[in-house]
Write a structure and sequence with these properties.
Elements (H helix, E strand, L loop, with lengths): L7 H17 L4 E6 L6 H9 L7 H6 L15 E8 L7 H5 L6 E2 L8 H19 L5 E4 L7 H7 L4 E2 L5 E2 L7 E8 L18 H5 L5 E3 L2 E2 L5 H7 L15 E3 L3 H4 L26 H5 L3 H7 L9 H15 L4 H10 L5 H16 L6 H13 L5
Parallel strand pairs: 3-10
Antiparallel strand pairs: 1-2, 2-7, 4-7, 5-6, 8-9
Length: 379
């Protein structure tokens, strides 16, 4: 707490200024919450006990610290929660998902890595506050520490937690990033918004791998985002055919969500698709060597999965593509020159093509039909 406490009118004015400064810095919404997340501790422990975190050891390692943000930055009493839209113009969902020879990449990863951009803006927001009150102490977070950002965003009035476990807003859907600024000022808090999912279970139904095992409950071990990004070993064979052409992340639960009809497109140039990632051909990406991977994906969130997992993911997608002699030749070209883990996935893909099993799944085609009806204009 500051050495000289601020008066209630000062805190009210500061909260209003913070929201205005946040908008000026490019955040579409700013809210303020207290740090009491104790009601989430039991559900977090239950989720861990079920093993739904898979190989994400950091989830278990930090345990209940996630639900106790005040321990991350002692002295903090509030979280300033922010969100920033990332859906790019001409995102190309339908044309990419409808073509098994193209690579589908989650829309959040098409441009520059959001972590640094949001963190820089949050620090600028903290500096503005400190310029007004020198006793201000703050720390920005953007997926950079064990903190439950969605419950904080929910408390701050940025939206409600949907059945797919993402934050939803009635006016903006869910295509946005979240960030937090822990601060030592007892600012007035905002109120949560009313939940709006009702009886809808579209996200649960459409999930290709049925990873949403119940309302608000995700088994990460089955989630395509986990399989293509967090998992470092072999992808379970029974899940590979269900992944289609998704090589990095999966947006299906967002694409199907009725609230995303109101999604707002981003005006951040850094989130626009890179040339190499905008609806790319699988075979073109398969030709990359490790140096090309590192160079072309510099500053991209994709780079952190490493070249080995990149090849693994592409091999699965190629195995799910329509049967093609060029794909078989490309898979054979890399065969024997990769790690045992990648080779396993190449062998699987080759067997699919040689046996005639490779094809676009009916579920993927069904998703495309749904997506074409509900996308924002130009998306």
């Amino acid at each position: 707490m500051p050495d000289t406490p601020l008066s209630e009118p000062q805190l009210q004015q500061l909260a209003s200024d913070i929201k205005r400064w946040g908008h000026e810095l490019g955040f579409q919404k700013v809210g303020i919450a207290d740090l009491d997340l104790s009601r989430h501790e039991a559900s977090l422990q239950e989720w861990l006990d079920k093993g739904y975190h898979g190989e994400m050891g950091f989830m278990e390692r930090h345990g209940m610290l996630r639900a106790r943000p005040a321990e991350l930055h002692p002295g903090s009493v509030r979280a300033i929660s922010v969100r920033m839209n990332y859906l790019p113009v001409e995102a190309g969902f339908a044309k990419t998902l409808n073509d098994s020879n193209k690579a589908f990449i989650s829309r959040y990863a098409l441009g520059r890595d959001y972590h640094k951009l949001l963190r820089k803006r949050l620090k600028q927001l903290g500096d503005k506050i400190k310029a007004q009150f020198d006793d201000t102490d703050f720390r920005p977070f953007v997926d950079s520490a064990p903190i439950m950002e969605r419950p904080l965003a929910e408390k701050a009035g940025l939206g409600w937690t949907g059945k797919h476990t993402l934050i939803l807003d009635r006016d903006s859907g869910s295509w946005f990033f979240l960030g937090e600024l822990l601060i030592n000022l007892p600012l007035p808090v905002d109120q949560p918004v009313e939940e709006g999912c009702g009886s809808c279970t579209a996200c649960m139904t459409i999930c290709p791998t049925q990873a949403i095992v119940g309302p608000y409950e995700l088994d990460a071990r089955r989630c395509i985002s986990y399989l293509t990004i967090e998992l470092r070993g072999s992808i379970p064979e029974e899940l590979r055919p269900l992944m289609g052409n998704r090589i990095y992340g999966c947006d299906d639960c967002q694409l199907i969500c009725p609230w995303n009809r109101y999604a707002q497109l981003t005006d951040e140039a850094d989130f626009n698709p890179r040339q190499y990632l905008h609806s790319p051909q699988l075979l073109a990406l398969w030709q990359w060597d490790e140096e090309t991977f590192k160079t072309r994906l510099e500053g991209s969130p994709i780079r952190r999965i490493g070249f080995e997992c990149w090849l693994r993911n592409l091999a699965v997608a190629l195995g799910n593509a329509d049967a093609d002699a060029d794909i078989i030749a490309a898979l054979e070209w890399r065969s024997g020159e990769v790690s045992d883990m990648v080779q396993e996935h190449i062998d699987w893909a080759l067997e699919r093509h040689r046996s005639g099993a490779a094809k676009v799944t009916q579920q993927l085609k069904r998703l495309v039909r749904v997506v074409e009806k509900g996308l924002p204009r130009d998306a």
